[in-house]
Amino acid sequence: MGNVPETTRTFRRIADDHVAQAAALDPPTSTRLGLHPEDDRQPDLSPEGFEALAELARKTLAAVDAAERSTGILEDAAERDCARLLRERLTAELAVHEAGDRFRQLRSVNSPLLQVRGVFIMMPTDTEENWAAVAGRLRNVPGALDGYRATLTEGIRRGLLCAPRQVRAVIARLDAWTGRNGGASWFTGFTAAGPARLRPELDTAAERATAAVAAFRDWLCDSYLPAADGTPDAVGRERYLRSARLANGADIDPAEAYAWAWEEFHRTAAEMRAEADRVLPGGGVRATMDHLNADGHAIEGEENIRAWLQQIMDEAIEALDGTHFDITGPMRRVETRIAPPGSSGAPYYNGPSLDFSRPGRTYLPALGRRSFPTWQLVSTWYHEGVPGHHLQTARWTASADRLSSYQIALGAVSANKEGWALYAERLMDELGFLADPARRLGYLDKQMLRIIQVIVDIGMHLELAIPADSGFCPGERWTPALATQFMAAYHGSDVPRSSSEIDRYLGWPGQAIGYKLGERVWLEGREAARRRQGSDFDLRAWHTDVLAQGSLGLDDLAARLAADAPPVGPA
């Protein structure tokens, strides 16, 4: 913690102790943070493993309570923020755990199951010692899957199951992992880069991991899917609000968010019509998107699109550094990669290790394509890379002298990060980086996607009525089929991406709303700072300040950004 006096480190010490214990219990956490590269364990996905993490959360909350009783909240702003974040995050996590939601958290995005493969992507592979750890972790894949089978079996016993749609989406991902869909096993492909001396060991371990995944996939088909039959896609209000609290760090008012999103929908739809007319006069939005996909600028080949997207980020760094942001040292390093088969259908970002030895990385799912239209991708890479996810996460990581590792990584709030990334897209539009009509239509299309997310995520799970003035199936109640039609009508994604999106909203309730709700908080915070400071407002200084504060839930973020001084008050 640098030169911070020991007396001001009470809550950061508690937070760092929590991270150390979580890393000891959960190997993916350790690997994500860049700790213990020799660790070859897989996560304990059994009921006992989840309970151990919950017990750690309870003990940490008790430590926060005791520290508040003995010392109160100290003067240091980061210390206060740390205490608030610990209490909010751990309380939300325990609410999900104690409701039994972990027993039915089988989904195609952000499922515990996905850590079994995801941990390999984060592992270092520079030395034989690194590859020996890979071999050990491959050998431990069967045990991890046995543990998760036990958790899901307990969910069946308790009547806590996920919907069949989620099971089928997971099965499709496991098919891609194993090569059952016609490709090669991801595990054997991964180990092909290993050193010659260890190849027999790696190949054997990869085959064993592939066989274990295939067996788990068959169990889902033969046992879990029949048991899940009849489980509804919609999770209902109680579970929705619980899940939304965890994803947003705020108590969401679904009615207010739903109504506001419809206002944003109509405003953005009008803006898209105007922008489409600049690209293809008189063609309309849908025809213009089809035109751009068929005849607009495109890059051929995976390596070429990877290099092109890398250039987009490199150019953004050069243009923004010293003008609107301070981008120095290891923060300047961010990589673009093609996502491995069986990944999410949407682009994504993985942050750097705490020491930056593993850089931040953006990933583009190729989805079997060879040609990549670029009209949507530019704003997306501002979102995933710079000044979006990478710049925020790297700035947090570079602030380790004043933030706990919990504030930097483990306590990250989805809506804070996604809201910042969407704000970053808007900022680049404001700064003129999206002046090209096709690229700007791509930006607006992504804004529309995030608006649709709020409407259909809340609408499907709470089975709300579609407004009379919506222009789309007025008065009907939302279903996955209607949501799919709505997305097809008003967003430019292809069928695989649209299907993947709907799966995601249904399987991860309340997360998708955080993009637009988070952006709203960031924009309102910037406007509040402008009003307070008047002609003295400096956007670069504001960015520097807000990016250095670490993770906060949306309620605390809104309070912090609205305040005259940085602290958000007592925890």
Q: So how many helices?
A: 24
- As residue ranges, the low-confidence spans are 1-7, 565-571
Number of E-type strands: 5
Query: What fraction strand?
Result: under 5%
* Helix percentage range: 55-70%
Mind summarizing the main beta sheet? 3 strands, mixed
**Alpha carbon gyration radius:** 23 Å
Report how far apart the termini are.
Answer: 21 Å
Query: Per the principal axes of the C-alpha atoms, what is the gross shape?
Result: globular
> What average pLDDT do the residues reach?
93
The helix/strand class is: mainly alpha
Order of helix and strand elements from N to C terminus: HHHHHHHHHHHHHEHEEEEHHHHHHHHHH
Q: Name the strands of the widest sheet in spatial order.
A: 2-4-3
Number of separate structural domains: 2
What's the structural blueprint in terms of helices and strands?
Elements: H1 10-25, H2 27-32, H3 47-71, H4 77-98, H5 115-122, H6 128-139, H7 141-158, H8 164-178, H9 186-191, H10 199-228, H11 237-248, H12 254-279, H13 285-295, E1 298-300, H14 302-320, E2 334-338, E3 348-350, E4 360-364, E5 371-373, H15 377-384, H16 389-398, H17 405-410, H18 414-430, H19 437-462, H20 480-490, H21 495-507, H22 514-533, H23 539-547, H24 554-562
Parallel strand pairs: 2-4
Antiparallel strand pairs: 1-5, 3-4
Helix pairs in contact: 1-3, 1-4, 3-4, 4-11, 6-10, 7-10, 8-10, 12-19, 14-15, 15-18, 15-19, 18-22, 19-20, 19-22, 20-21, 22-24
Describe this structure as you would to a colleague.
The chain is 62% helix and 3% strand. The protein has 571 residues and is mainly alpha-helical. The protein has 2 domains: 6-235, no CATH class; 243-514, no CATH class.
